[in-house]
Design a protein that fits this description.
alpha/beta, 2 domains, single chain, FAD/NAD(P)-binding domain, binds 3-acetylpyridine adenine dinucleotide
Length: 537
């Protein structure tokens, strides 16, 4: 039995969450080891290098707030930065705070077992490295476990096979090639216009149409940048006080409480601003079907105006889910791309994909010979990365068994039976429905305070109680039941993965309310957590 672990904390992941965790815990004097499966920092921005990849949150708030000099020194070139620039930013953060020295890269964790006798986590990586830590912090991201669809023959495609979330590091040229894209989620919507500019022909295989909003991306306006830098304190405070960790003005009216003209004007004004602001038009867009229908009508009219072929416009218009409750993609050129003579929309809802053989993708109605096949089918979201490794808690219980009916957590931070396991933007926290850098900073700061509390009070183990976990999970379910989210088959529910239990993985009660709750829990001596003195307590 080694009661003294090799590290105070092991952090898995080197994206926004992991880098900040390693920095913050290191500053507090903890011995921290970071483990990252990629060869370098970046997380989701390391892997998702497909053409057009960029962030759908504006860069001035999709960035770290923890260091004033960092936010003053860094200038974003675009309103919504593209993947190479965000990756450079994370590389800069790693250099600036000397974080790489705390990491072991190319280290895919394959097992994390809690050793009850010693109160330590025992970790193993794919290359045989082993270590132990008092606390384990998972910062593996909500959208990192790649989803390959179960299409017969797909992995043996005879041409060039690409997945948006595992894109090659060298440039991919589509000039003169026949390209197919499977999927029309946020990744595909960003990639399709760029691929269409190069390809001889592009076929988009769409199963479900999405509501796509404009981003209005453009170079950063120097005056706006100066204003942001002069007002960063207030901007970050607005993020912290908001429902989505974004600095938007909250809505004041219900959609049907205003006249049709006023409603149209509100949508038009927010459409012109671009991005997710559209949803701050009215208070009830996520809770009232009639209200939501007015927003759908606005976007439907835009699709009909933009797409020249009426049948293509019809196919591109969602008819099976309210707007906003499946993550809406952003792009400025998506709908107009379908007016290009070299782009075809294949409806694989009415004629499903059957198989792939050689270079031919076969649907129920046609055969498509392709040089390149781009698979944009997303992720086993929210729980996928954690469950892909063999996590075992007290009594050797597997997390996968514990979550056999879907994730249950306390505040998305801890799991009963898994002492000293902390999950950054974990299941049933606001996570993907909050601006990520703000959400990860809030979680990591809470964890840092918690680790300090444990150190100061000689607490060896901290673990959510069953009762607190059950109450939080029930509360999270109850909040979402009052919204329109259950009206879509979305990855928020795990519905994109065959056999995955259907449970909404995100707390939708709002980031500010959630943050206050976390603060109170800490203030009350970590209410809902059991604090243990040591291995033999
Ligand atoms: O993945 P998705 P994504 N046959 O799951 C289709 C974030 N993100 O990578 O809807 C045919 O959304 C599937 O169809 P259906 C963002 O949060 C952020 O695009 O299941 N089609 C769908 O169209 C986003 O929501 C940014 O019927 C199949 C598509 O593949 C999340 O990542 C940028 C199929 C998958 O869409 C995931 O986005 C990009 C099959 N067998 C992404 N299987 C930022 O801006 C699946 N599909 C930060």
């Amino acid at each position: 039995m080694d009661a003294q672990p090799q590290h105070d904390v092991v952090v898995i992941g080197a994206g926004f969450g992991g880098l900040y965790a390693v920095h913050r815990f290191g500053e507090l004097g903890f011995d921290v080891l970071g483990l990252e499966q990629a060869a370098d920092v970046g997380g989701v921005w390391y892997w998702n290098r497909y053409p057009g990849a960029r962030c759908d949150c504006e860069s001035y708030y999709y960035s770290y707030a923890f260091d004033e000099a960092l936010q003053q020194d860094w200038t974003w070139s675009l309103r919504y930065s593209e993947q190479p620039e965000i990756l450079r930013y994370l590389g800069h953060v790693a250099d600036r705070f000397d974080l790489r020295r705390r990491y072991r890269f190319s280290s895919r964790v394959t097992a994390a077992h809690f050793d009850e006798a010693a109160s330590v986590w025992r970790l193993r990586t794919a290359d045989g490295f082993e270590t132990t830590a008092r606390a384990l912090v998972s910062a593996m991201g909500c959208l990192s476990q790649v989803n390959w669809p179960d299409i017969p023959g797909l992995r043996d495609f005879g041409g060039r096979l690409l997945h948006t979330a595992q894109w090659p590091h060298e440039p991919v040229d589509f000039t003169g090639r026949r390209v197919g894209v499977i999927g029309t989620g946020a990744s595909a919507v960003q990639a399709i216009p760029r691929i269409a500019e190069q390809a001889a022909h592009l076929t988009v295989f769409q199963r479900t149409a999405n509501w796509v909003l404009p981003a209005w991306n453009r170079p950063t306006d120097p005056d706006f940048d100066a204003w942001v830098k002069a007002n960063y304190g207030e901007i970050r405070a607005r993020c912290l006080a908001s429902g989505g960790a974004v600095p938007f003005d909250p809505p004041e009216h219900a959609a049907l409480d205003v006249s049709e003209a006023a409603r149209e004007a509100a949508y038009q004004a927010l459409w012109a601003q671009g991005g997710m602001r559209f949803f701050s038009a009215f208070t009830d867009l996520f809770t009232d079907e009639a209200a939501n229908a007015t927003a759908q009508a606005f976007v439907r009219a835009h699709i009909e105006r933009t797409v020249q072929d009426p049948e293509t416009a019809r196919l591109l218009t969602p008819d099976d889910h309210p707007i906003g409750v499946k993550r809406p993609p952003l792009d400025d050129d998506y709908y107009a791309t379908f007016n290009r003579p070299n782009v075809t929309l294949a409806d694989v809802r009415s004629a499903p994909i059957l198989d792939v053989s050689g270079q031919v993708l076969r649907t129920a109605s046609a055969e498509h010979e392709l040089d390149d096949l781009v698979v944009a089918t997303g992720f086993d979201a929210i729980t996928g990365a954690l469950l892909a490794l063999d996590v075992r808690g007290r009594g050797g219980v597997r997390l996968a068994d514990r979550w056999a009916e879907g994730p249950r957590t306390y505040l998305g931070l801890g799991v009963a039976g898994f002492p000293n396991l902390f999950t950054v933007t974990g299941p049933l926290s606001p996570s993907v429905l909050a601006n990520m850098p703000t959400a990860v900073e809030q979680h990591v700061d809470w964890m840092a305070d918690c680790l300090e509390h444990m150190r100061a009070h000689g607490v060896a183990t901290l673990e959510a109680t069953e009762a607190a976990e059950a109450a939080w999970s029930a509360e999270s379910d109850a909040v979402v039941a009052h919204t329109l989210y259950p009206k879509a088959r979305s990855w928020y529910f795990g519905a994109n993965i065959p056999g995955k239990p259907r449970r909404f993985g995100v707390y939708v009660g709002g980031f500010a309310a959630y943050r206050e709750r976390c603060r109170q829990v800490a203030e009350r001596g970590y209410e809902g957590f059991r604090l243990g003195a040591g291995p033999n307590e």
